[in-house]
Design brief:
The chain is an alpha/beta fold. The chain is built from twelve helices and 14 strands. It folds into two domains: 179 residues, Thiamin diphosphate (ThDP)-binding fold, Pyr/PP domains (Rossmann fold, 3-Layer(aba) Sandwich); 129 residues, Rossmann fold. The strands form three sheets. The chain has a seven-stranded mixed β-sheet, sandwiched between helices. Strand 10, helix 8 and strand 11 form a beta-alpha-beta unit. Helix 3 packs parallel to helix 4. The N and C termini lie far apart (51 Å).
Length: 326
């Protein structure tokens, strides 16, 4: 059975169910005991729901210590950019201890952070920085695009014995979707095929998945059948599903809200260029944000961001392109 929930409520449902199931799950955050979060305190007590200092370095450091001591903390960071204040803990500490100890030390930690809040927030808190964490050994990176996956990936993240950066797109916060009842897990490293097609593969992440699906609907009226793939996790990345799709369609368009050279799209393009070049009938095309700080002006913001029209144009380009030659 399933029920309908907003994206953000699906995340909360997963955290609550995991806290009920496992008393080692903790919830940390700078506003965790304020009125809007009081239900967590009422349900689990102030030993498990902790207010932290207004210091990302402190709260993430505390969580790493708790994880090494056998707990499973979830840190509510609100904005992904706040992790930049504590990059030593995020990059140089939490992901390293397990390998450096030969597997003796586990760091089961979830860093929950919003991103991509392009709704008039201008230059800060609007970034898409997931690719920054993709190449860090020992660090897993999650980016759900549906309410169901928001729930299932959070539960999997909490149960994982490695640190997980869990990125939820703020423009999806109030998007509703069907969510399975009760315990629900989505495995890491398994992409979802959101739409099947035979002519072009689109790989999109987070908020851009719906933009890709909208573009695919437009293109279907032109007789172009688009397959839309949602990786769901950036690390581990399901390159197998992407390569299988490219082998079928022969064409690839990558959609990412990040700027071109700081995007997951660029990483995926490299994987396909190396391992699937012989399948390609046209050059890979990337539809990303422009290399610019997100402007406050709404028309300029829209100009910088990827959208359905840009995706449609990219697909039309690869369908009409000359074949790739060795």
């Amino acid at each position: 059975m399933a029920h309908e929930l907003p994206f953000i409520a699906a995340i909360d449902e997963a955290i609550r169910l995991e806290m009920e199931r496992d008393d080692t799950v903790l919830y940390f955050g700078q506003n965790m005991a304020t009125t809007e979060n009081e239900p967590y305190v009422d349900a689990f007590g102030k030993d498990r729901v902790r207010v932290t200092p207004i210091s990302e370095t402190a709260e993430i450091g505390m969580a790493i210590g708790a994880a090494m001591a056998g707990f499973r903390p979830v840190v509510e960071l609100y904005m992904a950019e706040f992790m930049l204040v504590a990059m030593d803990q995020v990059i140089n500490e939490a992901p390293r201890f397990r390998a450096m100890s030969g597997g003796q030390v586990k760091v089961p930690l979830v860093l929950k952070a919003g991103f991509g809040f392009t709704a008039g927030w201008a230059g800060q808190h609007t970034g898409t920085i997931g690719a920054m964490f993709m190449g860090v050994p020992g660090l897993k990176v999650v980016m759900p695009s549906t309410a169901a996956d928001a729930k299932g990936l959070m539960a999997t993240a909490i149960r994982d014995d490695n640190p997980v950066v869990y990125l939820h797109h703020y423009l999806l916060t109030l998007e509703h979707g069907e969510v399975p009842d009760g315990e629900y897990l989505v495995p890491f490293g398994e992409a979802a095929i959101r739409r099947e097609g035979s002519d072009v593969t689109i790989v999109a992440t987070g908020w851009t998945v719906d933009r890709a699906l909208g573009a695919a609907e437009q293109l279907a009226s032109e007789g172009i059948q688009v397959e839309v793939i949602d990786p769901r996790t950036l690390a581990p990345l399901d390159t197998h599903t992407i390569l299988e799709s490219v082998d079928k369609t022969g064409r690839l368009v990558l959609v990412d809200q990040a700027t071109r050279h700081a995007s997951a799209a660029t990483v995926i393009a490299g994987e396909v260029a190396e391992h699937g070049f012989s399948s390609l009938k046209a050059p890979i095309v990337q539809v990303t944000a422009l290399d610019a700080t997100i402007p406050y002006s709404e028309p300029l913001e829209a100009w910088v961001m990827p959208n359905e029209d840009k995706i449609v144009a990219a697909v039309q380009r690869v369908v009409g392109a000359a074949p790739v030659t060795a």
